[in-house]
Design a protein that fits this description.
The chain is of the alpha/beta class and 569 residues long. It folds into 3 domains: 4-242, Rossmann fold (3-Layer(aba) Sandwich), CATH 3.40.50; 258-427 and 453-458 and 487-497, TIM Barrel, CATH 3.20.20; 503-567. It is globular.
Length: 569
């Protein structure tokens, strides 16, 4: 039985795509994926008392609902269901608000509003402790509402009107977002099409796609903070989630640090940097630059690097004349040259100087070329051309996410995972170290339980003593924190994320007793995050994960199918 469901309208999606527009509500599926829950899809005509039987949480976008469907939802909430609505229409009484006006979203790639969390236990500790005055950014239409029985959780900075509300109705509750969270997250994650040189550097790069650009000097998780709030809401319903972090030898890490860099076509340094990282028991990932069909790395050197437990992939190189787009054939040719040279295909790659073409075209071509992931979305704006010693979350997240295609392809999921660059050559500048920034990188990763990308080029590792000291400082700060972390390469992290996506979780409730069946698709298993007050069977040892001030009880489950049960309080 599916205890979580969402509403999506196939006919409305078809109409919207035929108009050359994105069907934003389909990104609810990606929100559910980020949360680590399995859910059933309900079409609006099928929304009834029977369809909601056994459902405990319903996610709803802007789908047009009949009066009977709205009545069924209202009674379902009153009987104990939890409704989470994103700009949902016609349910003001259920949400405990009065709708005053709808405000349009003008420029698609500019914020329509800024949001501040209010003092409430559900969002306590979520917003950035390093940048508490920076608001979150909204990219969608807005509803101006007046709370009647609802309690505001967040407000729009410009109007002070409620942006997120919580309403208790009978035995259930309804959470209302007065904006489209699916649209906001999709736009923050994937940005604008890379067709205009917005940075003015003469090249089409992922920095041109960034729509949080006015705020990217800060380390604010513009997308992830909303996911953290939704995690807490799901937890209040007594239901478990698959944690975003992979287990580490049967334990729960507090963060993941994944390490990699590009060889920039410099010979000999790849193997030396691999040996240096191995001495510190660190994983490492080296992207080997394509240079007119050749590579500076020799196949035998690649074999030794892989024998060190490190990853070798392709550094696509489209650094040619200004303002020229590369093509699908350009990309496929470089992937073919890599496989011909080294005998295996790339998994996660980086574009040299983070070039990009179009919006979803490059992601589609990468998947066709055999890539499983990309690591080219950069943390900072330009100039300078190479902003080293930078920390940021320009695309709102430190967690992997799948690409969504545009309207021409029905907004289908592209089988390619983006792992954004977050900490780029951090901890040093020239011949001096900057330990304060290194400490901030580690602190943010541990506070939020992040997947933090640690990006260091082989040429920097072997050519700069201060770069080596920066890496050693990061390891020292992690050790001094006394917390358990996991180090990975980008390939390994993306393999984990794909397996997490294909894992399944089914929960069935009988009063306070919850029976859960989990199918873990990764050889390392997965971490099951339990809801507040869950008391599992005694043979399941509890471990803890702390995220944004909230402690989560977790259990590590092995590969394959596991059944467990717990009591809710």
């Amino acid at each position: 039985m599916d205890t979580i469901a969402y509403v999506a309208d196939s006919l409305e999606q078809e109409r919207t795509n035929c108009q050359g527009l994105e069907y934003w509500d389909i990104y609810i599926e990606d929100i559910l994926s980020q949360l680590g829950v399995s859910a059933k899809r309900i079409e609006p005509p099928d929304l009834s008392n029977a369809a909601l039987a056994g459902v405990e949480i319903l996610f709803l976008g802007r789908s047009g609902l009949s009066a009977d469907a709205r009545s069924a939802i209202h009674e379902w909430v009153r009987d104990g269901g939890t409704l989470i609505g994103f700009l949902s229409d016609g349910l003001a009484e259920t949400f405990g608000v009065e709708e005053v006006a709808t405000l349009p979203h003008g420029d698609l790639y500019k914020p329509s509003a800024r949001l501040d969390f209010l003092a409430h236990p559900l969002d306590d500790g979520i917003h950035s402790p390093h940048h508490p005055d920076k608001p979150l950014l909204i990219f969608s239409e807005l509803k101006r509402v007046i709370p009647r029985s609802a309690v505001p959780l967040a407000s729009f900075r410009e109007t002070r009107s409620p942006a997120i509300t919580l309403n208790y109705l009978g035995k259930g509750k309804a959470v209302y977002f007065a904006f489209s969270l699916p649209k906001t997250l999709w736009l923050i994650h994937q940005g604008r099409p890379c067709t205009v040189d917005t940075e003015g550097d003469g090249h089409f790069r992922t920095g041109d796609m960034n729509i949080t650009r006015d705020d990217t000097d800060t380390a604010v998780l513009y997308a992830d903070e909303f996911i953290f709030l939704l995690e807490r809401i799901v937890a209040t319903c007594g239901l478990p989630m698959i944690e975003a972090l992979p287990p580490s030898n049967g334990t729960v890490p507090q963060a993941v640090f994944f390490w990699g860099g590009d060889d920039e076509g410099a010979p000999e340094l790849q193997l030396k940097s691999s040996r240096w990282m191995k001495e510190r028991s660190l994983p490492y990932h080296i992207n080997v630059m394509w240079m007119n069909g050749r590579f500076a790395l020799k196949p035998a050197e690649a074999d030794e690097i892989r024998a060190n437990g490190h990853e070798v992939s392709l550094h696509y190189n489209f650094w040619w004349e200004r303002l020229r787009h590369f093509t699908r054939q350009d990309l496929l040719q470089q992937a073919a040259d890599f496989k011909r040279t080294f005998g295996f295909s790339q998994e996660v790659s980086v574009m040299h100087c983070i070039r990009w073409s179009g919006w979803t075209d490059t992601a589609r071509w990468l998947a066709e070329a055999g890539n499983t992931g990309d690591n080219s979305f950069f943390p900072k704006r330009y100039p300078p051309m190479n902003p080293a010693n930078s920390l940021g979350f320009a695309f709102g997240t430190a967690f992997p996410f799948f690409f969504r295609d545009d309207w021409r392809y029905g907004n289908a999921r592209i089988p390619l995972v983006e792992v954004t660059i977050n900490a780029y050559e951090t901890g040093y500048s020239g011949d001096k170290t900057t330990p304060d920034l290194t400490c901030k990188v580690v602190d943010i990763a541990l506070y939020y339980g992040l997947c933090m990308n640690m990006f260091y080029h082989p040429i920097c590792i072997m050519g700069s003593r201060s770069c080596q000291q920066a890496i050693d400082n990061a390891l020292r700060f992690i050790a001094e924190s006394g917390t358990r972390v996991r180090h990975m390469g980008p390939d390994a992290l993306v393999r984990w994320w794909i397996a997490r996506e294909s894992s399944a979780i089914v929960a069935k409730r009988d009063g306070k007793h919850v029976q859960v069946r989990v199918n873990a698709d990764h050889p390392d298993g997965l971490i099951l995050k339990l809801p507040d007050g869950a008391i599992p069977a005694p043979h399941l040892p509890l471990q803890q994960l702390k995220r944004a001030g909230k402690r989560w009880n977790c259990v590590v489950l092995p590969h394959g199918e596991t059944e467990l049960s717990y009591m809710t309080t």
